[in-house]
Protein 1
Amino acid sequence: MRAGIHMNIHLARFLNALLIGITLLTVSGTNAAGTQKTYRWVDKQGNVFYGDKIPPEFAAQGSKELSGQGVVVKTNAPPLTEEQRAEAQRQEKIKAEQDRIAQEKKAHDRMLLSTFSTEEDLIMTRNGKVASMDAMISATKSRNQSLQKSLAAMRASAAERERNGQLIPDKLRKDIAAMQTQIRDNLSYIASKQREQEELRTQFETDLERFRVLKAAQIETLKKTGNAAAANP
């Protein structure tokens, strides 16, 4: 009885293989005529099918396109789900941002090497910019000191008029308000320039470290190429 069962199983497998072979030969013959394509797909139970068209119910599972000799020449991936598409778009945005940052870094590196020849050049440029900001801050502080004196005089005049029972002229009121606004604006400008100075110092420190790395790599490359004179100016 067991032998009969095994024979039936082997016979079923043989007939299935024979059917697939006949299908391939039939479709291959059609392909040889150049009129049809052969597709291979699998259902949810793992059964393999061949044909010149993929049934709509299997289109979402992906398929393989075969040559006339039964060789896979193209694999058609199943369409992405909404979640997969969203994740793919997210990954694309991440990669685009990473590429943008990398390109900006390369451009900045080129700028450092093309603008500065030595560390001293970079340091002198930084000191010059810091000194320029110091001059603007000092000038604004000096201007504010003058404004404070003028404001104090205006306030004293207004107080004197009030003590004498006189009305304070509208012009004086407006001048006092305008002076106060100007002083506040100047203080804000000074604070912003001081922050800019700190950011400048931090950026130049970062640039200096990067310049040292780039210069060392440049010198090492020149040494490897045998240009010792250029590597040791």
Protein 2
Amino acid sequence: MTAWFTVLASGSAGNASLLQSDGFGVLVDFGLGPRVLAARLAARGLSWRNVNSVLLTHTHSDHWNEATLTYLHRLRITLFCHPSHGDDLARQSRAFVAHHSAGLVRSYEPGREALLGNDLRLWALPVSHDAGATFGVRVEGGKSLFGPTWAIGYAADLGCWDAELVAALTDVDFLALEFNHDEQMQLTSGRPVTLIRRVLSDEGHLSNRQAGDLLRAVLKGARRDAIRHVVPLHLSQQCNRPHLARTAAEGAIADCGANSEVSLSSAAAPTPTFAIGPDACKTGYCRGGKKSRSPSNSNGSLSPLAHARSTRNPAAGNSTPPRVP
């Protein structure tokens, strides 16, 4: 079975991505208004009808939006968040209070598997960021006799990384990772000193250098063909340049002899829709494969993580792109 991932927006102006598997869609963060999100979805032949649940990684304002939360309540779409996110949102958001009262909020905890729907399994990965509880995510899906057939990793806001995060991201098929800034550009940006110190701190954002080092560590522990796609996230408009982030990512890939393709995200437009899973090359959107039509035009605790990685069968599964109304 093939899954599909689209970064709808990534940056300080708003963050949102859509994961689809077997007709079930999970919106990862919702930092844009509902009309803007609708336009980003439409640009990929999708709509709000393709969103079945929503996952919140942390409560900074570029990752959630009050008007969108009101719209989620209207559509009765389930929201997954950490309990501390609920505490924060209950103080800030009338829409969240209404959503929670309607029984449409589910919680997740690090170290425990959470079911997002349609057999999609979430592992929340704690990361260091100045937003209270903040998480990267690993989502696994597909079924075979040997366990899940694909996995994605996503970490949009973090100031540093450790061996546990590396282990959790190893052998994912798709990795979206923050490449926020160039360190020299940050230091000479003319920004307030307090802001520069915040961004460069262990609770700030990953630089291109730090993200490249994290990517190297992940790739060194992975199968050579494991990570087909790497998408740098959250590029600073003031303190980064797309070619710098790409160079850092491609340098890490080359150093490890990996076969990953780099595609940059943007605050202004969605990425292509990436096919993920053992049959991804058959559907296109993979390195060395002929790009076929996208799904929008078709009809169609870390020890369990280690176990899943060791037992995942890369040859299992059949793919059907999600049907778009």
